[in-house]
Amino acid sequence: MPEYMLRRIMMLAPVLLITSFISYALICLCPGDPARLVLEAQLQGTPSQAQVNDFRADHGLNQPLMVQYVTWLKKAALGDLGKSLKSGDDVWDDYRARFVVSAKLFLAGELIAVLIALPLGIWSAVKANSIIDNILRVIALGGVSLPGFLFGMLLIYVCAVRLHLLPAIGYGKPANIVLPALTLGITGSMSLMRLTRTSLLEVLKLNYVRTARAKGLRERPVITRHVLRNALVPVITAIGMHFGHIVGGMAIIETLFAWPGLGMLLVDAASTRDIPVIQSFVLLGSAFFVGINLLIDLIYTLLDPRISYRAKEG
Amino acid sequence: MPKTVRIGAIIIICLLVVACLAPVLTPVNPLAVNMGEKLQGLSRQHPMGTDQLGRDVLSRVLYGARTSMAASFSVVIICLAVGIAIGCIAGFYGGVIDELLMRLVDIMMAFPPFILPIAITGILGPSLTNIIIALALTSWVGYARMVRSSVLTLKHLDFVAAAKAMGSSRSRIIREHIVPNAVHPLVVYAAFNASHTILAISGLSFIGLGAQPPTPEWGNMLSEACSFMGSSPYLFIFPGLMIMLTVLAFNLLGDGLRDYLDPRLGTEVDL
User: Interface pTM (ipTM) of the complex?
Assistant: First the structure.
């Protein structure tokens, strides 16, 4: 296991290097001259050739791509990700501040999702093919087909527009988090509930469960002590994978609720072609995501000692 | 064949028919602005009402099927083509080519979901075409991985060895023996990918990065409906229902096909 982990950690450096290059090279996708496009947006008109040349010189855009990339990466390694073209804010400071904002929403939403998904998923599996199971399955199937932003709109309509119970959009007051967190939690719980159910059903079929029942254990300890330990491993992995959503995965919901997190930062940058923000966002996002995935792998091996990566790799 | 597959397939066929026959089904132009009739509720003349510019919601919803279906099918078809090609090359040739292609796949998977499509459309500029490009650029990876693993299992089977012994060329073996046998898991994956793509396209259009107004697109219509939620809730109910129905249909199809094509063993094999 340590050998495998060592290999995984050693793979981090090349992966991050290439993702950083892709993050920077996104600028090549720009239709036309990026300097001209940015200036056109900033000045609301056609920039003069002199202005374009100055902008290129200022941002090093007249150098070859590799040189630009290396300069950018060196600065990024020192924590200087440049400034937003739109607001002039330091990208790194902005990113950190908004990370906290997104993380709050994510944790609240995920907590709701887990609180709904685990009990209902377990109940559904234990009572497989009963009426309650069928009802829950239909709800879950409908739920995974319901886009989060649509559910969010429905919540806004019912809770804010009709009943005036909660503020629809905004950030700052504690009540603001309720609707977006409910949206994320309820829509997110549906796939988690399905996963819990299938995972539990698969474990319930195994021979050791039959043994546990045969030796006279009552159903409750069979489930809590024997089945859940194994059945929840994939569920915990899925929850871990969800942490990647902090860095932009909730973009649509954040935009709907005007929740000023990372997703909204990315959407704002994307709709104004704020290239430095987009590049840094992709760089930091992938670094975070790769880190999270490594962490999940680590936890996975701790949770399930049967996993032998050497066999899998060979 | 399970009931879910049939229901899903019927809904998808209906949606395709609606998409193709939209001009026949509704004589009203979805782009025709009529300020005199704006924000009218449901009536015989406008069964789903009219929006803030007096456009007929029914005809916009029907034409929206066209946009969504065309866009998601484009993404799925591009990904299938690229994924099959890359997966076959990697799996069949192995060695350095395989290693390189699979590292590329790993790199693509190092980006968190949603970020890359949003970033790419941000730089290309928001439009439906660019969303299709961005989603295709990021979704082929799963297909390639899946095809590669099928090829790796298939290429050691006897019928492939027999074809080789009979002197079939590599490309012929891939075309006639490998691809047809790798189709099953691919169809299931494609169904789920189609549902994800529809969600992504409508979601990105909703936040203004996809189809631009006045194109009739469901996500787009929802975002316009946000401002009139209090007075005209029907504006978001109908396009919303359509998105849900479409995504549900593809999920039913995927779920059903998965159970049908890959029945799991009933119990663990006896010791």
Answer: 0.87
